[in-house]
Amino acid sequence: MKFLPGDKKYSFFNNIHIDIDLKSIIRVNHAGEMGACQIYRGQIFAAKLKNFSEETIDQLYEMLEQEIEHFLYFSEKIINYKVRPTLMSCFWKIGGFFIGFITAMINEYYAMACTEAVEEVIDIHYQKQIIQIQECIKNISDLDSISTINSFLKNFLKKIEQFRLNEIEHKKIAENHNKYVNTNKLLKLIKRTIKLISLVAIFVAKKI
Ligand SMILES: [Fe+2]
Ligand SMILES: [Fe+2]
Q: Which UniProt keywords are listed (predicted)?
């Protein structure tokens, strides 16, 4: 069994404190990426029923593929480091699919407002984690004995930076599709509501 840097049992960290809870980070990211996959699956399901253009469906598939890559990365960490997944997995699975499906069933603009909302939240969420991990690396970098932890954190950081760039790309795709989101009141309201739901879901997944 492996232990994560920061765990009490992790040999390199017996006497060293790091200000970062990696288990919580892995748990919430795993949940978030699961939710993102489900949103795109729901959107694709509805997009086919509603005959969205082939180009839009292809884009949804491309975004889904990237979300699956993100999800698999955190799934591997969940397994390797014995991190308990969130107790709200069911909510993320069903809720994610439902939100994606319903918004896409209304029309493409609502589907893209949903994507924009979720990706905006994830972008900021990853941005905060990147700063946290960078800080953590800075604080431990002068200690030779913890080079394994350093390399773990650096690889982990690289992945989150890459994922964040993907999320920004998804956000841009949604923005390009959705020129009405800032002028239509209902679209604006839906976007705000989905942002709020995402923020609450992230908060909960960090804790449980
Ligand atoms: Fe993602
Ligand atoms: Fe994304």
A: Iron, Membrane, Metal-binding, Monooxygenase, Oxidoreductase, Ubiquinone biosynthesis
